[in-house]
Amino acid sequence: MKTFSEFLAMGGYASYVWSAYGLALIVLGWNALAPGRRERALERKLAARPERRSA
Fold this sequence. Notes:
The chain has 2 helices and no strands. It has helices at 4-9, 14-48.
């Protein structure tokens, strides 16, 4: 690696490499956040339901 700008250019493949890294980061972030959002939505939905009692 001669210079940092050459490293960032990735030998002419920078647009492919950095877009792949960006897309992977977005997918990993979504995979980390989506279950929590889904769980909170389900909890709100269940809390809004009337309570059922079996007697």
